[in-house]
TrEMBL record:
Transmembrane segments: none annotated. Residues 1-49 are annotated as: Disordered. GO terms for molecular function: FAD binding; proline dehydrogenase activity. One of its GO terms (biological process) is L-proline catabolic process to L-glutamate. Residues 162-371 form the Proline dehydrogenase domain. It catalyses: trans-4-hydroxy-L-proline + a quinone = (3R,5S)-1-pyrroline-3-hydroxy-5-carboxylate + a quinol + H(+); L-proline + a quinone = (S)-1-pyrroline-5-carboxylate + a quinol + H(+). Converts proline to delta-1-pyrroline-5-carboxylate. This is Proline dehydrogenase. It is an enzyme of class 1 (oxidoreductase). The keyword Flavoprotein applies. The lineage of its organism: Eukaryota, Metazoa, Chordata, Craniata, Vertebrata. InterPro entries: FAD-linked_oxidoreductase-like, Proline_DH_dom, Proline_oxidase. Keywords: FAD, Flavoprotein, Oxidoreductase, Proline metabolism. It comes from Gopherus evgoodei.
């Protein structure tokens, strides 16, 4: 009779937890212990699956390894709950609780409290870096903040900058939809901070049809100057006009693109001017690809290079077009001594054709350029047939 015994009855399956707890008895391993009374008596119940976390915590009881512990109460009482999958990260962090290995820890709160959350896949890199936390192996670390805090991002499978540097190959990270660009931008900045110490091996892409392109470019330039890494840029107009506008309509947020083609051209020219001035200041630490099929943009770049004294054969500024598009511009640039990249889309037809269509849609002058190129080819054929000088 547990009521009368009032003593310790280990291994008993029918012990009355209410009376046992009232007598201060400890009932380890009991599956039916009353957590309310156990907690009231200050009884610790390790390994119990049905312990009442609220009462246990109120009594200052420590319930390690329990899957159903109340994180709110545990944290309020300063109770550590290692290995718990359902711990409340917000409360844990607010109380300064350390929750190693938890997959659901709140990274924002963890970082705000200075909590270190190694190995967490959902850690907030921005907050982690702001708090000086190092998040090695995290796939979503914020590179911009990582650069500021000197955080390394080892183990990335999607790019091997070290291998690229060893082989003398530059890594140009492309831009995508606006909902992906912030992550791409921050990852690229982190890689720049790590590998672009002597010269720009990792480059980022900036889409000038975005209304905030110039502001973001200026912010990243300031970050590069502040932390002393080299800056490589591929400057494009952008290729997802219809998709971006459709997503904005469906999502109910403002259109992120410039309203007109002329406004995009103006944005491209302003970004180009900013970068060319940086190249003129130090062409070893800032380099640029003018990726454009627009003859006016190319002519503007050539004129500014001449005004700023940027040598055409230094390689600090080069030009890029698709193979088969604006070849007359590419060939003329090459003959004049400028560095030119010709991009070759390679892959299955059903994958390559949509890519080429997007390239044509991004700039109305592309189709005009194709007609102009056709006329130039016709004239050249007649010249050769007639053997004219």
């Amino acid at each position: 009779s547990p009521q009368r015994a009032g003593g310790r009855v280990p291994g008993s399956d029918c012990v009355s937890p209410q009376r046992a707890a009232g007598a201060g008895g400890r009932v380890p391993g009991s599956d039916c212990v009353s957590p309310q009374r156990a907690a009231g008596a200050g009884v610790g119940v390790p390994g119990s699956d049905c312990v009442s976390p609220q009462r246990a915590v109120e009594a200052g009881g420590r319930v390690s390894g329990s899957d159903c512990v109340s994180p709110q109460r545990a944290v309020e009482a300063g109770v550590g709950v290692p290995g718990s999958d359902c711990v409340s990260p917000q409360r844990a962090v607010e109380a300064g609780g350390r929750v190693p290995g938890s997959d659901c820890v709140s990274p924002q709160r963890a970082v705000e409290a200075g909590g270190r959350v190694p190995g967490s896949d959902c850690v907030s890199p921005q907050r982690a870096v702001e708090a000086g936390g190092r998040v090695s192996g995290s796939d979503c670390v914020s590179p911009q903040r990582a650069v500021e805090a000197g955080v390394g991002v080892p183990g990335s499978d999607c790019v091997s900058p070290q291998r690229a540097v060893e082989m003398g190959v530059r890594v140009l990270v492309d831009a995508e939809f606006t909902y992906l660009n912030p992550a791409l931008r921050l990852v690229t900045l982190a890689l720049m901070g790590r590998w672009n110490r002597a010269e720009p091996w990792v480059w980022n892409t900036y889409q000038c049809y975005l209304q905030d392109c110039l502001a973001r470019l200026g912010a990243d330039v300031a970050l590069a100057e502040r932390w002393g890494f080299c800056f490589g840029v591929k400057l494009v107009r952008g290729a997802y006009l219809e998709q971006e506008r459709r997503l904005a309509r469906e999502g109910g947020y403002p259109d992120p693109l410039h309203p007109t083609w002329e406004a995009t051209n103006h944005s491209y020219q302003r970004c180009l001017d900013l970068l060319l001035e940086l190249v003129a200041r130090d062409g070893q630490r800032c380099q640029l690809i003018v990726a454009s099929h627009n003859e006016s943009s190319v002519s503007h770049a050539l004129r500014r290079m001449e005004e700023l004294g940027i040598a055409r054969d230094r390689g600090a500024v080069c030009f890029g077009q698709l193979l088969g598009m604006c070849d007359h511009v590419s060939l003329a640039l090459g003959q004049a001594g400028y560095a030119v990249y010709k991009s070759v889309p390679y892959g299955a037809v059903e994958e390559v054709l949509p890519y080429l269509v997007r390239r044509a849609q991004e700039n109305q002058s592309v189709l005009q350029g194709i007609r102009r190129e056709r006329d130039l080819l016709r004239r050249e054929l007649w010249r050769r047939l007639l053997r004219r000088p």
